Amino acid sequence: MALIVQKYGGSSVGNVERIKRVAKNISNTRSQGNQMVVVVSAVADTTDELISLAKQINPKPSSREMDMLLATGEQVSIALLAMALEAINVPVISFTGPQVGIITDNVHTKARIKQINTEKIEGELAKDKVVIVAGFQGKTIDDEITTLGRGGSDTTAVALAAALKADLCEIYTDVEGVFTTDPRIVPKASKLDRITYDEMLELATLGAKVLHPRSVELAKLYDVKLCVRSSFVNKEGTFVVKNQLIEKDLVVTGLAYDLNVAKIGVFDVPDEPGIASKIFDGLAVANINVDMIVQSAMRNNINDIAFTVPKDDLDKALQIVEEIGKEIGASEITHADDLAKVSIVGAGMISSPGVAAKMFHILAENNINIEMISTSEIKVSCIIKSNEVEKAIQALHDGFELDKINS
Amino acid sequence: MALIVQKYGGSSVGNVERIKRVAKNISNTRSQGNQMVVVVSAVADTTDELISLAKQINPKPSSREMDMLLATGEQVSIALLAMALEAINVPVISFTGPQVGIITDNVHTKARIKQINTEKIEGELAKDKVVIVAGFQGKTIDDEITTLGRGGSDTTAVALAAALKADLCEIYTDVEGVFTTDPRIVPKASKLDRITYDEMLELATLGAKVLHPRSVELAKLYDVKLCVRSSFVNKEGTFVVKNQLIEKDLVVTGLAYDLNVAKIGVFDVPDEPGIASKIFDGLAVANINVDMIVQSAMRNNINDIAFTVPKDDLDKALQIVEEIGKEIGASEITHADDLAKVSIVGAGMISSPGVAAKMFHILAENNINIEMISTSEIKVSCIIKSNEVEKAIQALHDGFELDKINS
Lengths: 407, 407
Description:
Two copies of one chain form a homodimer.
Chain A: E1 3-8, H1 16-31, E2 35-40, H2 46-57, H3 63-87, E3 92-95, H4 97-100, E4 102-104, E5 113-116, H5 119-126, E6 130-134, E7 137-139, E8 145-147, H6 152-163, E9 168-173, E10 194-196, H7 197-205, H8 213-222, E11 226-230, E12 238-241, E13 254-270, H9 275-285, E14 293-295, E15 302-309, H10 314-328, E16 332-345, H11 355-365, E17 372-376, E18 379-385, H12 389-399
Parallel strand pairs in A: 1-2, 1-9, 2-6, 3-6, 9-11, 10-12
Antiparallel strand pairs in A: 4-5, 7-8, 11-12, 13-15, 13-16, 14-15, 16-18, 17-18
Helix pairs in contact in A: 1-3, 2-3, 6-8, 7-8, 9-10
């Protein structure tokens, strides 16, 4: 008897018919002799609607009350899904995150899971029940309701799979698996049968919206067997696995892009120890994720620093940087938000020199200007103008022959 | 410095503008130097929408999952109201019922409050914050989420006022106070300045939807000073007080009616001890409230029993009664659901004989047939056809001269 954790995203439970279909799918998996824990997101658009309602009342609500508000979305989903299972005579019980013992830190709207108490779930599994858990949410040790941020339901699922030592964690979504790139941009994009944690992590971080990067990190850390598949089409999805399970390491496995990119430039700052840390500490305290950082070669002990942040955080980041800029004597602070990041990812890159050069060559051939570059062992990312993303992805997909990936 | 508990119903927080108005009202009361605890219901219609959604998925959802679903309604309200107060710089914190320590029994969808832990609220009041609490909900000692049933938010407010020893409990609603009867039926109906707990209790039980009877019971038991007033019009409402505060005891203070009445008749049951208890125990176990009970004079050791139940519970009650009917050898079981109850209420009735007779006389004059009668020290209720309610109320209001009540 296997223990399977399934996660269904917001579009998978988007209306009454879909909720019933999910219930049927759970019932089928269970009747094959599996124990089931099911994580559900808020019904599609609910979270956005709640946020929009909140903003009408208060343009800047406290994050504590935002969590209080948003946590209701998943609570509705778990109750409805439990009712759908009751209707087809599957024994079931639902729990909110706080109720089931998902303990987080106290960073409201972006909380991290600290601990999961599994007794309650294990007790109900022993009674042969399907256990439904609200994704995206937990509580602090002081009983404050927290949410994990966007994509947090994936994280809940993987964390539960790790804590319960589940045999498999299936992430059901509205796509059939992980593709070489976004099929809406490149119709020839192919579904991958397998991908490594590291590749998935790069793809996830870089904006392929299939899996939240934190969930992939967690899966890698606790060796959780992950599978991404469609809740609408009954087809095998993409397995996310350790390196050794990949039979042939492709040089480039996938392309990702991210439109949520803004750039801030800080000019003429003294080349002294601690200057960069002043800027980035300030941003870290405000919980702003800095992605790429480029520091120019110094001239006369003066530096220019440029970095990217999520577009949503640009205003907050600018405010902080302008304050610190005065303090450290920066001559000018610039910003731009018409940018995007395109990336190529592949575990095979480590042993294949020239992949980055090929990428730059393809972009240059298509007259696409590169504003910033960042590389890791298994990915190369370029910041370009956002209106050139589609052209870039199309050209790179052709150039790296990703349509032939499963052949 | 007074401690005031305010409760706002669903229509009072029915849209963004109303939520902002409620926040302003709270801020005004606070700036007069009061400590504030505020209980909020779900935004108007939310609960009904959630129930309708649930029924599309499962016509008979378990009451546990129903509570899981319904509890989200108030959680949305408390978060939005807290945000509205934040927007006008009032220090505030919101809590769900389970979170703040409202402990109930485990009768899902109809739970009763067993205990309230006030430390959390008192801690936040000491920090000078307005404390917002979700009405209608609590948790069992096993952390299961429960709801208190319709009108439960009034009960939450009064229970909190009792536990916190508040100086006043204000119930804000969409009417200006308690009226002699429904102003929609009798335009001349007058607002009462004061009413006793007992009178209010009869009026509440009998279907005047201003206050939930459980909340009035609780207020009487713990001597909570209650006030019912409008959240739309800034006028003094109706104070609900102990007997001695009423200056003149009116013979009849108010008229109430209830359209949620169904009757069940059980014919030819043996006149033996335990027969009635068999029927009513069965109904009690199913949590069905039986209201009036009439047992006919016996003939040949055979009885007829008739009683009323809420119309919503008729199907469930019939099923139970038919089963027990077979067991006890009843010859026939009948039912009717085109009935209503009209009642006259007044603390002065105790010392005024002939009030019941006057009521029967007025109804007879208007050709209204009485199907069942029940009386207490301060009320007389008659079951009549539901299509005659309006005529009855109009005639009784005129007959008892209730339009002259405050003069």
